[in-house]
Design a protein that fits this description.
2 copies of one chain form a homodimer. The first copy, chain A, has 14 helices and 17 strands. Chain A has helices at residues 12-32, 46-51, 63-66, 83-93, 103-120, 137-141, 158-170, 174-183, 192-195, 198-212, 231-239, 301-321, 359-369, 399-411, and strands at 3-8, 36-42, 58-59, 73-76, 97-100, 124-125, 149-155, 222-223, 242-253, 256-267, 279-286, 290-297, 344-354, 374-381, 387-394, 397-398, 421-425. In chain A, the strands form 2 sheets. In chain A, strands 7, 8, 9, 10, 11, 12, 13, 14, 15, 16 and 17 form an 11-stranded mixed sheet that branches. In chain A, strands 3-2-1-4-5-6 form a 6-stranded parallel sheet, with helices on both faces. In chain A, helix 1 packs across helix 12, helix 4 runs parallel beside helix 5 and helix 13 packs antiparallel against helix 14 (399-411). Chains A and B meet through helix 1, strand 12 and helix 12 of A and helix 1, strand 12 and helix 12 of B. Strand 12 (290-297) of chain A pairs antiparallel with strand 12 of chain B, so a sheet runs across the interface. Chains A, B: Pathway: Amino-acid biosynthesis; L-threonine biosynthesis; L-threonine from L-aspartate: step 3/5; Amino-acid biosynthesis; L-methionine biosynthesis via de novo pathway; L-homoserine from L-aspartate: step 3/3. Chains A, B: This is Homoserine dehydrogenase. Chains A, B: Residues 348-427 form the ACT domain.
């Protein structure tokens, strides 16, 4: 007897799932003996149901799915942390397995959702919440568990990666690139979640929790976006042998979990540096496996639906075999989060300053006062007469020391011509 | 009660597994509730057992492991298709689960081994047989199954990738690079399996079988190695915007499965083109997921042991939960293999020919005779007086037509000065 599916949400990803089921239902049965049937679809939007030909099983009330005793797996694809949270928790409570693509939910209420699944003895799967179609959560929960994972670094937001790629390759300013991305449908009308790094923060919280066996929520993640990145900084970076990516970081350190999202200068020969446009990639370093990377399309109907349906088929397989959930919550440890001010890394800092004698010496004094050791400094003239660009690259320093340097330099009389550019450097 | 492991083979990978168990046994229990214990180790080499501190559980007779009723999982790491085949088949018959890294065995006797596992109701896992530590078999058997996979292309042999990288970057000839690779331990004293593409052929047979749900054996795979690649061809390729990789191909075509290993010209902006040195990567294209790539270290103690132990822990988890094998053989279809002579692709062909009038016209005539359409031809002088290099790139053509062109050009009176270089081109 077929495993019965209820789908909540018929947007881009939901539509992709319906298409996959239409095209491959017979293949799933033939190749894997997995028999799934979509029996109910919920959406606020009846037109989407008609478009996908599911009007006969359509409802606008998600409780029709939660309360349907026939349904084995609920697929939650509406996103957000309000109604979606209810759908997921109520479904689990009603004894259904849940597959979701909801990064905000898992990064915010992950512990609650995992506990609800455990209480119900049901599965919760969320491969599509990170990296679109890229298999990353499943490999980290299965293939890579013989490792102590030390680093997870990812380009996990396609919108900002597209924007940074365009800015670097075509010397376009931020505003112009954002408008273009919005016109192409790569960025939303309100781009905040993408450009301010919040989307990436949710994703790295999920990956860090799995990698380090310790719960990391979105609130633990320092997030800084790309609004202040200029084509000039990208050009200077390139001259120095680097590119700039909005990178989500999670590192195991002696002080705890270092987890953050910000523009990062990466050496051009780093494997992540070749990941351009809307593609995503997640770089994972383990003590046995060494460096690995998982690359693919991070968004869009097909890729996200591939991940959702991969989860659905796996859960269906278990249901057919009468198998209980295999992997539940793996957050068995409670490792502290390193406060951002304790971060130790290298910094690229570009100041536009008044072209006056003594400025360089005064600034050097400030760096020395805070024990921030400078690796290199390059001075170049600007178009505006009377202004020069000073680009510093530091040795490894503490975030709080660098912030103190920036604060003190801001106080230097009438020196700064604009806000400095600060980009952390990964070697 | 702990799941009991028996290890056969204490070389590089076996040693890596012993180290992982030493370092992480407690973590496996704490994070995942998986309790494993190595109870018996077989090797021809007592010194290796002493080196890894397992002399108290050491034997030189593998039947001590096969016949030990206490052992739940046999880890076969001796390689080859003779004794290893006996170890695997006898272990399954004795009711044990098997984890192996043996590509030759799986690519040659995969059907027999899968059937033996099914008969026994036991698991056979072989993630480490392809791509070292890179999770690829597990993602293809789980995360990606909602897709119809159309292409799997991989750099799956680190030795030849290292050699080609050195040849391209440092303009070194084949023999010199091979000697260096041997000195560094990247190539074996008898390099045949690597440089002739046989190792890669076994790996792509395994991946193709999974990707297309149809059995492909090593004998189905056309294999051509890198012995004839010259630094000059790598240089010309680069000028044309390509690199040369020993690529393992598996494509779903209308005529059947196109599966082969040979040096391939790849555009420099292809994601696989950035994979250098001893790294491996597998590029997978699915109808929903689009382009994905899995990157990592393809060989060595840690990476391979990461994959082996990942399999071991997964099987142990199932044993502890009383779960039967979840995925067995998925070769439900019988898709024909496209004969190599029917291959349709583009070709790079470089001839060194006598610098005589009429040669270009005669050669053009031969191409035309066999309906091989030429995209570009570049002539350049050589150091040897009286010889010119003619580099052709064809449009898409049939392999058999190109072979006919080569045969006819070989017959042109006294024209060829050396064997032509032929490299297939992937766009």
């Amino acid at each position: 007897m077929a495993v019965k599916l209820g789908l909540v949400g018929t947007g881009t990803v939901g539509g992709g799932c319906i298409e996959i089921l239409k095209n491959h239902k017979q293949a799933f049965l033939r190749h894997y003996g997995i028999d799934v049937e979509l029996v109910r679809v919920c959406s606020r939007n009846p037109e989407q149901a008609i478009e996908h030909g599911v009007e006969d099983i359509f409802t606008q009330d998600y409780t029709d799915i939660v309360n349907d005793p026939e349904i084995d797996i609920v697929i939650e694809l509406i996103g957000g942390t309000t109604v979606a949270r209810n759908v997921v928790l109520e479904s689990l409570k009603a004894g259904k397995n849940v597959v979701t693509a909801n990064k905000a939910l898992m990064a915010t209420y992950g512990e609650e959702v995992m506990a609800a699944a455990a209480d119900a003895g049901k599965e919760i799967a969320f491969e599509a919440s990170v990296g679109g179609g890229i298999p990353i959560i499943d490999p980290m929960k299965h293939s890579l568990i013989a490792n102590r994972i030390d680093t997870v670094m990812g380009i996990v937001n396609g919108t900002t990666n597209y924007m940074l790629t365009r800015m670097a390759e075509d010397d376009m300013p931020y505003d112009e690139v954002l408008a273009e991305a919005q016109a192409k449908g790569f960025a939303e009308a309100d781009p905040t979640a993408d450009v301010d790094g919040l989307d990436a923060a949710a994703k790295i919280a999920i990956l860090a929790s799995i990698a380090f066996n310790s719960r990391v929520t979105i609130d633990d993640v320092y997030a800084e976006g790309i609004r202040n990145i200029t084509p000039l900084d990208l050009e200077i970076a390139k001259d120095m042998g680097y590119c700039v990516k909005l990178l989500a970081h999670a590192h195991r350190t002696e002080e705890g979990i270092d987890v953050r999202v910000h523009p990062t200068m990466l050496p051009l020969d780093h494997q992540l540096s070749t990941v351009n446009g809307v593609f995503n990639a997640i770089f994972v370093v383990g003590d046995a496996v060494g460096e690995t990377m998982f690359f693919g399309e991070g968004a869009g109907s097909g890729p996200a639906a591939s991940a959702v349906m991969g989860d659905v088929l796996e859960v269906a397989r278990h249901i057919q075999m009468g198998i209980p959930p295999i992997v539940g919550c793996t957050c068995t440890d409670a490792i502290p989060i390193v406060p951002m001010e304790n971060l130790k890394t290298k910094y690229y800092i570009r100041f536009a300053v008044a072209d006056r004698s003594g400025v360089l010496a005064a600034m050097a004094g400030v760096f020395a006062d805070h024990n921030v050791s400078v690796h290199s400094v390059i001075q170049r003239g600007k178009k505006d007469a009377g202004t020069v660009d000073l680009t510093y690259v530091t040795h490894t320093a503490r975030e709080k020391s660098v912030r103190a340097v920036l604060a003190d330099i801001a106080k230097l009389d009438d020196v700064l011509r604009e806000e400095p550019s600060v980009i952390r450097v990964e070697d």
